Batch of 2 targets.
Target 1
Amino acid sequence: MSKAKKSAPGRVPSHIAVVMDGNGRWATRRFLPRTAGHKVGVDALKRLVRGCLLEAVPHLTVFAFSSENWNRPAEEVSALMDLFVQALRRETRELAAQGVRLRFVGRLDAFEPTLQDLMREGEAVTAENLRLQLNVAINYGGRWDIVQAAQALALRGEPIDETSLSAHLCMAGVPEPDLLIRTGGERRISNFLLWQLAYTELYFSDVLWPDFDEAALRAAIADYAARERRFGRVPPPPPGLRVA
Ligand code: IPE
Ligand code: IPE
Ligand code: MG
């Protein structure tokens, strides 16, 4: 992608969250097993990372596996686990070279030790990188996240308020997403970042995840740039009407 195609400065979200949906349908439409769609989905994620680096988006959070995805057929779950292991083995070095800081959010202790080790290693070798923080939500559920934060506070006998609870969520310290992109045509959150999405701009695309490319990312950012965020307030009056 050429530099000329970069989005206008000042209108790029600081944090984009993505529900990468539609892999299964992408494959089924081609008479391929669903797992083929997941495989190509990894390439789409690599494209998204490159796009975010080019657009100078500092935070990206992707939904790779929900706490409910364990309920899929055993073969699909097991193929996904193999794919996570493969992708980490293949991609960590390049991510590190690109200046990406990798983080995994979710209940990681449910995964087999090899995958847990690769996730920890990926975090460790990229820990000093500052260009783009890539949070991968894996065995993640928004309700679980809120409950584990409340439990941590209760255990310490600390008061539960919005500030203390936010500070115990998996992504504490990361700014809340400005833009949520969901591909695949469904218009739902599916238990992603329930707390953090309170004032996020939502963008739903019918493009299936494996087909999501740089142009699709630019279209999402352009749509975001045209929105007026109000956070419960009223819009400012036009300049000519301002009262001193
Ligand atoms: C999203 O694609 C990837 C994961 C949930 C791991 P899907 O597998 O949900 O694809 P569709 O929605 O069935 O097409
Ligand atoms: C959400 O997609 C989870 C991920 C993309 C990892 P799903 O395909 O699991 O969501 P539902 O079941 O359509 O709501
Ligand atoms: Mg789906």
Target 2
Amino acid sequence: MTKASALIAAAGAGERLGKGINKAFVEVAGKPILAHTLSVFESCKAVGEIIIITGEPDIEAAGELVGRFGFSKVSGIVAGGVQRQDSVRNGLDAATGDIVAIHDAARPMVTVELIERSIEKAAEMGACVAAVPVIDTIKSARGDDVVSTVDRSELYSVQTPQTFRAELIRRAYERAYADGYYATDDAALVERLGDRVAVVVGSYDNIKVTTPSDLEIAQVKLGGGFMDETRVGIGFDVHAFAENRKLMLGGVEIEYESGLAGHSDADVVLHAIADALLGAAALGDIGRHFPDSDPAYKGISSLNLLSEVNHIIAQAGWCVVNVDATVICERPKISTYVPEMRQMIARALNASPDRISIKGTTTERLGFTGRGEGIACQAVGTLRKA
Ligand code: CTP
Ligand code: MG
């Protein structure tokens, strides 16, 4: 059996992505989407040739890309048409294999394994589509009104590759064009002939990059890390020891002969962390958000303030990556309290405790912390776009 021909449909305008260019050429994780997709097909043993279908003005750029990345299986670059179906038809004219795997350039997370499974299935059954069961409850609606809830047990979201015996998909395309029939995928044209189309299990990762948020998902999945900047903030706070006060550090009551002076519960650790997080988001400091002239904050648990800070940064579109704090004092020793502090802080920040670090140090009896006059805390926090 000859190897399969892969048709890569890359002739759309990419309007919904809003980059002003054909999205196949948009860079994600260091290279154009088309290059990611081609490299998966290039690695497929069952694929003998690859035909790229792209817009007339992009043919040169596609050729340059193939040369730059050294894709040796690309045997042709042909011009697309107005609709995707028109584009695929042009590609079919150039394909020479017995099996044709049709794939959207905009699905760069396709895997070698899925392509090979789909080629095997098409060889056996004639036609197959990659598909995954729908996740959401599906309703039909007219205008603003729900009409009914659809039984989703038989519903699938259909992806590409869609793979066919070449003779069958050509016959299906000829019939569709003879009847002036257009559909949104290739298999629909085969279904119209009354031929069987099999389902192969696709993957929820095999998304079609359509909107800007899809691009962010692709960036992470393709190993490019987070697209949005990471922000770092720094915080520092000091409170003096005071008689007849509970000592609160990191949201935990510490057994000690004195507490810390302050308007709230004077939790120096939580204050430094709150300032670090607000600083990372460039949203001021705790003094601005919770002025100590405001009686509402008198004696308040600083865990509540930290939760509120988390809410403020979340509203601005940020979420906590990690926090690291150093508590500076000669006494008390804090190490036995650290696990509980991490739990309390993590809970206030809706984060996992393994992203929260608390350390203790002394200043070798130097300075005000060394003389036991108070406790200082330094913290850094990092945020990423939620
Ligand atoms: N496609 C194509 N020829 C067309 C239209 C689309 O080859 N005339 C390709 C796209 O390049 C894409 C795939 O078909 O890889 C799926 O289409 P879609 O996600 O709709 O891409 P675009 O049409 O580029 O995007 P938009 O609809 O947002 O403009
Ligand atoms: Mg489109």
